[in-house]
Design a protein that fits this description.
The chain is built from eleven helices and 19 strands. It is of the alpha+beta class.
Length: 402
């Protein structure tokens, strides 16, 4: 027996579940298929290694769909300032402060799992949304006017529209025959959760070094997330070190701004690559989040552009539904793609530019980038543009993110 829905969202992570919440009470029947639900939250739990820097635009979207309270009720860390500098330069660090443009913070650092928990909790309030988990898919068949998704337990679901929110290795995208353009940065990011002697901080910073950036993301209390970009072999070596030796390496390499590390809560790594789908939509299928694009995590914008995908797609689908237009119509989905591809491509190019400029030791280029940082920090128009970019407030925003 086949169960029919208007929309099947394959992937109930941050982006997929946010899209579902944005479609709550819409009159559209929605199923969210999630392979595995996140573990529950207890305040005494150590912080997770995977965190995101949520922008102001993302916060507004999460507020508008009723999920922000569930995040704030658990734990998050607002940051008001961000600071960048180059280790080998004598130039002063460049600092950006939200108060300079009338805001009390630039964003929040939040564990990915807690964002997902709050969103999944929120979507349970909507009668038109079913959460199906565990729901590993075994087959996806596209036929005119509908898509059939078969689950591992034999259940068959049919949707007028299927949304691929199932990550960078998306099964839905592959089944639709949508290719990707890839770029390997030949670097890995080592992530370490630590406890420091300093109390909760309101600043995030990055120091650029010849081997790659070092980044600090504040978490609640004395906790922080450290990101160390380096070659795959060096990251592998660091992960294999005994804890005491790894701690010594952190103290030797990270700048004094970090303070004394009192505990290492965990460490992990992931490869850095850029990936962009050659198209975001096909008849009856549309891509969002990592299924559509993966960018360099240098400025922590990956989840933010994914959430803006969700906001824009929800806005497009709701408008089509209210006008009696088919939600699987290709021309309607292409309107969504046109809006989001332009924004996402710009973000990818900016992140690529930062990566190439700061991973190059050519003398004139070093002078140019230090001069650029100095100008960005001291000229109010340039400084404000950088902050608005980091806050997700530049460019065309979906109404749900305003």
């Amino acid at each position: 027996m086949k169960t029919r829905y208007d929309i099947l969202i394959v992937g109930g992570g941050m982006v997929g579940s946010a899209l579902a919440c944005a479609l709550g009470n819409s009159g559209l029947s929605v199923a969210v298929l999630e392979r595995q639900l996140p573990a529950g939250f207890e305040p005494s739990q150590p912080h997770d290694l995977r965190v995101s820097a949520l922008s102001i635009a993302s916060e507004r979207f999460l507020q508008n769909i009723g999920a922000w309270g569930g995040i704030k009720d658990r734990r998050s860390c607002p940051y008001r300032r961000m600071k960048v500098w180059e280790k080998s330069s004598t130039a002063a660090a460049t600092e950006f402060d939200a108060t300079a443009i009338g805001y009390d913070h630039l964003g929040h650092i939040v564990e990915n799992r807690l964002i997902q928990i709050a969103l999944l909790e929120r979507l349970k309030a909507f009668d038109n949304i079913d959460l199906i988990s565990p729901a590993p898919t075994t087959r996806i068949d596209y036929v005119p006017g509908a898509t059939l998704v078969q689950l591992e337990d034999g259940r068959e679901l049919v949707g007028r529209l299927v949304v691929a929110a199932d990550g960078g290795d998306s099964k839905v995208r592959k089944a639709a025959g949508i290719g990707v353009t890839k770029w390997d940065y030949e670097q890995h990011a080592l992530v370490a959760g630590v406890t420091t002697a300093y109390g909760q901080q309101d600043i995030t910073w990055q120091q650029f070094t010849p081997t790659g950036p070092l980044a600090f993301l504040p978490l609640s209390g004395h906790n922080a997330s450290l990101v160390w970009y380096n070659t795959p072999n060096e990251v592998k070596r660091l992960l294999a070190l005994p804890e005491e030796q790894f701690l010594q390496q952190l103290h030797a390499v990270f700048p004094s701004e970090l303070g004394h590390i009192t505990e290492i809560q965990g460490r992990s790594s992931f490869p850095l690559r850029r990936q962009h789908a050659q198209q975001y939509c096909h008849e009856g299928v549309v891509l969002v989040g990592d299924a559509a694009h993966m960018i360099h995590p240098l400025a922590g914008q990956g989840v933010n552009i994914g959430l803006l995908d969700a906001a824009a797609l929800a806005q497009t689908l709701l408008a089509a539904h209210q006008c009696g237009e088919s939600i699987s119509d290709l021309s309607m989905l292409e309107r969504f793609e046109k809006q989001r591809r332009r924004h996402n491509l710009l973000m990818m190019q900016v992140m690529d530019g930062f990566y190439r400029i700061f991973s190059n030791d050519i003398g004139p280029l070093k002078l140019l980038r230090n001069a650029g940082l100095g100008l960005a920090g001291h000229l109010p128009p340039a400084r404000n543009r950088v902050m608005e970019f980091a806050m997700g407030l530049r460019g065309e925003l979906p109404d749900l993110a305003r």
